[in-house]
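Hi R.,

Here are the chain sequences for the assembly we discussed:
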Amino acid sequence: MKTMQLYKALGLTDSEYVEILKRLGREPNELETYLFSAMWSEHCGYKHSRKYLSIFPSGGAVSHGENAGGVQIGEHVIVFKVESHNHPSAVEPFQGAATGIGGIVRDILAIGARPIALLDSLKFGKITNNFSKHIFDGVVHGISHYGNCIGVPTVGGEVAFDEAYTDSPLVNVMCVGIVRKDKIRSAAAEAGNVVIAVGSHTGRDGIHGASFASKELNEKSKEDRPSVQIGDPFTKKVLIEATLEILELQEVQSCQDFGAAGLLSSSSEMAFKGECGIDLHLDKVHLREEGMQPWEIMLSESQERMLFVVKQNGVDKVLKIAEKYDIPASIIGETTTHGRYRLFWHGKNVADLPPESLAEGPKYAINEQEPIYIKQYAESKLTKTTPIKNAVEKIVSDPNFASKKWVYRQYDHTVGTRTAIKPGDAGAAGIWIHEEGGVVGITIDSNPRQVFLNPYEGGRYSIWEACRNLISGGFEPLGMTNCLNYGNPEKDEVAYQFVKSVEGLAQGCKEAGIPVASGNVSFYNESPERRVYPTPSIGIVGYVDSPKKMVKSSFNAGETLILIGKDIEETSNVGGSLYQRAFYDFVGGKIDVVDAKLELQLKKILFSLRDSGFISGCVDVSEGGLFGAVFEGVKKANTGFIGNLISINDHEKALFGEITGRYVISTGNSLIVEEFLKLNGVSYRKLGKCEDKKFEFDGYSFDLAKLYDLYDNSIDLEMNE
Amino acid sequence: MKAGIIVFPGTNCDIDTEKACKYFGWETEFIWHDDTELNKYDIIFLPGGFSYGDYIRAGRLAKFSPAVMSLKDYVKTKRGFLVGICNGFQILCETKLLPGILSTNTNTKFICEEVELEVNHDGFPKSVKFAIAHGEGRYIADEQTLQGIQAKNMIFLRYKNNPNGSVLDIAGLYDKENRIIGMMPHPERGVFSETGNIDGKYFFEMLNKALTKETVAAT
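And here is the predicted structure of the full complex:
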């Protein structure tokens, strides 16, 4: 095929091809055309998002711009990042999800950090839909199979079900690692060193994975199944140990993992970041199958491979470690001062490009005009109601609210002996950092309905909701990572959603005082029938310097419950609330706007109460509203509640309406706490008392055992049908 | 006291076990799977994980590693204790150092949770809570083997709410004659109060006591 026709077949546009001609001053050869098509794909090149992501604040983050960024805690850096594996999971849920873990773990490893925790944000179609059930089961099984085997605990996350994700499920995996500050590695290579590939043999799997992830899913997507990589957690576990041992060597200068667009992406980024040249001899790469062509070797996304740049005197040491672990390794090239990215095939120079031409692809501006749906939806009103008794049973058994035990019971969440807060115990996971004496709190959360209704405010809403997950546990939020999941950015609605929500996220981070340490974008999550809600998954890492300072999210019998922060009013905007979607299939109205000053004040108050020991439990109010927060807190202590929750005429809104800026706390010293709140000018409302075996409020009383049973078993029943 | 922890490619509880041993002040070393010098250790752990990827069946391939082949000698000479946890228990059964076999959980899924266990050992509380984390933890054996186990009073731990379908609720075995202990639950995950469970300490204290007594007797 002539390269003229080839570029089109590979997904490059005419104008992109013209740009390539301009940059090279000549026509690219066939191999070079393959290289450009992969590096300039959305997945690798971020061409529709790069322009906008630059507004994220990054000050204070460590290693920003590397494979993963982090925040410093004492002598150590906590490194973290989220990545999506949406497209592969849609066509092959088990392998798709499994290799998603593999990829993000390698990013953490490449920094030199030991992975210590995994979390997932998962979105599926309705759980009652058999197809969605199959994807859900496969994804959870894939995560369980892979995560458990590599010995990194899966400690938390979120799982949600909504028709919008039927065709495009979202699988976002977050990995957290720890490294001593002085041992952090960079991906930037220096000239005059040796390039060594360590890990699995390179095969034909995953070729075009990056391009596959850069288009919409349709009926033919199943034909793309060979673009899904196959993971081998056993090899990965061995590779983790070998990599960490290799990175202990002084002679190792830089490290990269093989991710999307495999060897091409890892090696060209090393050269680009290090401003040096690189020569690779593709015939030296250890291969799994015969007859592979140079372009296949470059684009293969075979899993479990790492690339090292090593000083001459360290080469033997690296090879020896690889041998100890029985992992293949080959010397495949060298970094040079000529500043070019050159590929050789049996001695013949087959590609010769400036590294920046690959790494710095085009940047596109996208639509920022408000689409009509925004106003239409904002004006729509919900008029239906449900009797409260039914509504309460409905919400506790809704799979979005109900216990996710069916999921996390399949994940090894205690390996590593660091798990201080287990999944299901609180809004955030807790990982004990014995190296520093404290506990890292980690959350991954999203508010897609709110972002859909108001992308900018929804962005701020998402940041603060994730922060509240941490603050309620006593953790100071320190840094953010994200995975931005949207539809096709070439469509105006999606473009607007993306641009505005990124602005809102950036603003939220600035208000909360946290840098964005790393991130990932996943576009094209749509089919001809459905598009996902704009879904930024927000991962935030926080810290508390002693395990004793952690605040539980359970409310014990005898304790008083107090709502602090915003109270709901008849005029409150509760657009995007779960109950509206779950009961009436309604998404509309306005969303509540975050009051950042209030949020910061509440944080300060809660930390004072934490330090004085006057509160014993705290739950942030989110999905399920005030009822949801009270129910979750008493359920965790297996107690009950008597009191008043309803303060306005619309009882459903009072109980389940979602607004920002509020927490429910439990205390055995309510007089002192109330006095303290008054003194500091914080609005609050006393809700009632926790009492065993009872659940009564505002004249309604419930069969508590039945509610608990519905909450505990609804997903189980659905999946074991 | 000197503890050795055998590490296979795919082992993932080696560092956790080391952390627990060191908490009790034991001198602790890792034993790479092709090492065969085992007699310097007072106690040897086969830790949890997925040795050699657990291909074919959990623990099946580890049976052929040089370190495991040397365990038979270690046991014969009654040098010290041999403890297999999770994948280690599976390896002990595959090598027939303990009777029976561990098979896929009845619900066919991996199960990770804290379970209540009934303990059959003097100087140990009657009931403890340990973490389990396994996909192949269903203990099975033929009638004759089970009779032998009971006759020798080998059932060390039983599940109170059997999560995986193990016969006779068996969670752990203790062959006192040969000083071999195998168990699916993870006592090493119950040593540090920061992780919310310290029942695992009883297990390490039990070993500590048994071995310290010997050291005292020997001197």
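The CA atoms of residues 82 and 148 of chain B lie 20 Å apart. The interface with chain A takes residues 9-10, 12-13, 15-16, 19-20, 32, 48-50, 52-55, 109-113, 131, 133, 135, 186, 188-189, 191-196 of chain B (CB under 8 Å).

Let me know if anything looks off.

Best,
T.
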